[in-house]
Design brief:
Length: about 700
């Protein structure tokens, strides 16, 4: 049955079709050719109405916005260029002023003469290579055996190519390979130390004391009193005008029975005003009931070792069981002795308890930040791993407690080197004594804020170990310790970490790398220049995670310091005169306000016998402070200096960077450029404390 057609829909469709045809015909007659009525295709043009005024207004607005953006960008670029130009002018003025006012610094040293010769050589080679590049010889090098007629300069260049390929490049490549092997060995040692530290952290390994002074039950004697051993505290100092007061105060407020502790202030000062200030400070604490004595040597022989040796020769020392040593800028906490002495109980073979250093001025400038990275790795990783696994590490010279019996058994303090702390630690280890390192007990101290002070400190720290290695090498071989301990002392403690590290660091990155730019037949791989040092820098910075933004300056600065460490290592190994110099590291007396307030509160405790005594001591303290400030003002003014070895190496590296551009060596160019800038900044003494 068929459905009836829908006529209403048909009528509506026809009406719509006729209307569209009418619109189309009218549009065609006015705008263009018309379509035939029978054409089945119907075109309908749909136009969106737009206002010409709106279009013009939007165009004007867009042009105005673009102009403002361009002006803003131009202002930012102008400001940046002006700031950079101002900084450059300031640096140039500073450099010019320091060059004009600088005294001769190490100009007569052997290493400086070698660097100066090396600089002249690379400048001459660069000029020769630029001439060859201009002549096009880099793309078609001339050959001595060719049939072409060569000019004089071209013949010289051809002979140079043959000489460097046959005679110069092979030994340089051999030296490069040796340094790469040493570099990899030292990197493996660093990775092993980091893995050992991670193992200690994961397993929660730490020394455990057999007694606790907070729990007095284990310490009571038959009479019911707590037994405290007799402790001698020594503060060696020499002309420590800025820090003597806070160090003496920090020791005198120790939470330890007064009758069981004696403080020795060992003053080697040759400044009469400083002697009077320190003596007055000692008398002030004596009036407050603290057992403290002042000792001054007229003849300062043996430096710090001689000072400590003289103090240990006193008759009353035999009454004491332990000795704690603090340098003049160290501020131990009031509970320092209560946190360290308990570890000796039940450990009769324990000679030393070493604590960690913490720094009051680690954020003072870029130099102190970079030092904090190095020392954080030293204490967190090296000292802790060696203390846990082999019970031996180098004594840091301060912030430690020794068993006096161990000091006497291994021969006491000797004056033969400038690293008396490492000397006595090695001798005690050879006698069979053990060491403990406490990473969670911290002692506040100062970092050198000027590059001059830091450089002198590093020279002593790296020349002394080589002196000691020469003197005790055969003693190590003849000792009764195990073969493993002998190998650890000789190969790891001395050779790898004290000799090889500064040797390959200076030789590889300051000598070989620039030479390979002028002797391209000898190659230094990019992974040695960039990738492995980058990984090692990341490992070094792990104990100080807040310092990650300074990882690139740290890498460059460590290579910059290699010239100082290499020079010190050679001086100590070959017994040059500079290796026996002892210069006290300059301190500025940095101390947080909280520390000073705590000292004041401790001083106001009932330590005083009478209120009048307290008043007179306070008044005398004010007089001493005023006198100290007046003496500071009358003292010598320090100034920044120029360091010629660093400046010479900066020019060598920048010259090699220019040469690397001719060979299109990207990574080598950037490394040489930034390393050269780093040497330049250090050579102009722009990294640490700036003295106007």
């Amino acid at each position: 049955m068929s459905r009836a057609p829908n006529r209403e829909f048909q009528e509506w469709w026809n009406q719509q079709r006729e209307r569209n045809l009418d619109l189309s015909s009218s549009s065609s007659s006015s705008d263009g050719p018309s379509t035939s009525a029978g054409d089945p295709l119907v075109s309908v043009e749909i136009r969106t109405p737009r206002s010409d005024q709106a279009v013009e207004k939007s165009r004007a607005r867009s042009a105005r916005q673009l102009s403002w953006v361009c002006l803003l960008r131009f202002q930012q670029i102008t400001s940046l260029v002006a700031s950079a130009a101002s900084s450059l002018v300031s640096i140039l003025r500073t450099a010019n002023r320091r060059i004009a006012a600088s005294a001769a610094d190490s100009s007569s040293s052997r290493l400086y003469r070698i660097i100066r010769f090396f600089l002249i050589l690379v400048l001459a080679l660069l000029g020769f290579e630029l001439l060859a590049y201009y002549k096009g010889w880099h793309f078609s090098p001339p050959s001595v055996g060719s049939k072409e007629v060569l000019g004089y300069v071209e013949l010289v260049y051809a002979n140079w190519l043959e000489i460097r390929a046959k005679y110069l490049a092979p030994p340089l490549q051999s030296l490069t390979n040796v340094c790469i092997v040493l570099f990899l060995i030292q990197s493996v040692d660093r990775v092993v130390l980091v893995l050992g530290c991670l193992w200690i952290k994961i397993r929660g390994i730490k020394p455990v004391a057999s007694i606790d002074y907070e729990k007095k039950g284990d310490l009571e004697s038959e009479s019911g009193d707590v037994v405290y051993p007799m402790v001698l505290v020594q503060i060696p100092m020499c002309n420590e005008r800025e820090v003597y007061q806070q160090s003496i105060a920090a020791v005198c407020i120790q939470d330890w029975p007064r009758e069981r502790m004696l403080v020795q202030v060992l003053d080697d000062s040759d400044d009469l005003d400083v002697q009077l200030l320190i003596k007055s400070e000692v008398q002030k604490w004596q009036q407050r009931g603290v057992r403290i004595v002042y000792r001054h040597r007229l003849i300062r022989t043996g430096y710090k070792a001689g000072n400590l040796k003289s103090a240990m020769s006193c008759d009353y020392v035999k009454d004491y069981e332990f000795v704690a040593i603090f340098d003049a800028d160290f501020q131990p906490g009031p509970d320092f002795l209560k946190k360290t002495i308990p570890y000796f109980k039940g450990n009769d073979d324990l000679a030393l308890v070493q604590t960690r250093w913490a720094f009051v001025n680690k954020d003072e400038n870029l130099l102190t930040r970079l030092q904090n990275i190095n020392l954080s790795f030293h204490f967190e990783v090296e000292q802790q791993v060696n203390g846990v696994f082999i019970n031996f590490f180098g004594f840091n010279g301060t912030a430690g407690v020794w068993r006096i019996k161990a000091l006497e058994e291994c021969g006491g303090w000797l004056e033969r080197t400038t690293v008396e702390d490492m000397d006595i630690a090695v001798r005690a280890h050879l006698c069979g004594w053990k060491f403990i390192y406490l990473n969670d007990v911290k002692c506040l101290c100062e970092l050198p804020e000027s590059y001059e002070a830091y450089k002198k400190q590093q020279h002593r720290w790296h020349s002394g170990p080589m002196q000691l290695f020469r003197m005790c090498f055969f003693d190590v071989l003849r000792s009764k310790v195990s073969l493993a301990k002998k190998a650890n002392l000789i190969f790891l403690f001395f050779l790898l970490r004290k000799l090889i590290l500064p040797f390959y660091s200076f030789t590889l990155f300051c000598i070989i790398l620039p030479l390979t730019m002028f002797l391209p037949e000898a190659q230094l791989p990019a992974w040695v220049v960039c990738y492995v040092p980058g990984v090692m820098s990341i490992l070094n910075i792990l104990p100080a995670p807040r310092s990650f933004p300074f990882i690139v300056p740290y890498l460059l600065f460590e290579n910059t310091m290699s010239v100082t460490k290499f020079n010190a290592m050679i001086s100590g190994l070959l017994k040059f005169g500079s290796s026996y110099e002892w210069i006290v590291t300059k301190k500025l007396g940095r101390s947080s306000e909280a520390d000073l307030v705590s000292f004041s509160e401790k001083e106001s405790d009932p330590l005083l016998e009478t209120s009048s005594l307290h008043r007179s001591s306070s008044e005398s303290g004010l007089v001493e402070l005023n006198k100290m400030e007046m003496t500071k003002k009358a003292g010598k003014h320090s100034r920044n200096r120029l360091y010629r070895k660093e400046l010479g190496l900066a020019l060598i590296l920048l010259t090699a960077a220019v040469r690397s551009l001719l060979s299109a060596q990207g990574i080598h160019f950037y490394f040489l450029l930034f390393q050269g800038i780093s040497f330049l900044v250090v050579g102009l003494d722009l990294i640490g404390e700036q003295v106007s």
